[in-house]
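step: validate -> pass
step: tokenize input -> pass
step: predict -> running
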Amino acid sequence: MPTDRQILTLAQWLSPAYPVGAFAYSHGLEWAVRAGDVRDAPALRDWLSDVLSHGAGRADVILMAAAHEAEGLEALDAVDAIGRAFAPSAERLKETDLQGAAFAGITAEIWGGELPALTYPVALGRAARLQGLPLLLTARMYLHALMSSLVSAGIRLIPIGQTDGQKVLAALTPLCEKVAEEAVGQGLDELASSAFLADSASMKHETLYSRLFRS
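step: predict -> pass
step: emit ->
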């Protein structure tokens, strides 16, 4: 069973207060709202459910697990290279690159350990191993934090109320658990994405003249 310290460490790492800049990214959601693909709370729930099950949510956990199991920096760099190659657009690459570098820098300064600039899920997986944090718990809390950040973006973009936003997050929580449990046991050979609309939205977001978010 995870200890209180482990849970609280992950709560700190994945808190909106941790300075990785997650608030600046919508993961392509801004384009989807502009295009009319996401108009209300049920549509937001469905969109994010697909991101979790068939897109970046599942893929990030697979990358995180590979980083957690990587023996040495050479193996870790190989996982990170795959994570960068897997990004579907320039903005999504920047999103994971900048958040990962920020996470690695602040975490290494506070907790120590060899933690180079890596893509976000790879950096988190490596840091969890260095601090002896359970992989499954890390994956569950990461997915919940990702959904929380994107729900917050949806509240601002659609817009929907805070209560509806929290209903969406509560509805997605069991799926965060399910995806984490399935993906932690999958290897890099099973890395895939079929969330085509979300990936396409992240590409189209690059063409927006005015925007609130960086992706």
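step: describe -> The chain has one domain: 24-205.
step: cleanup -> pass
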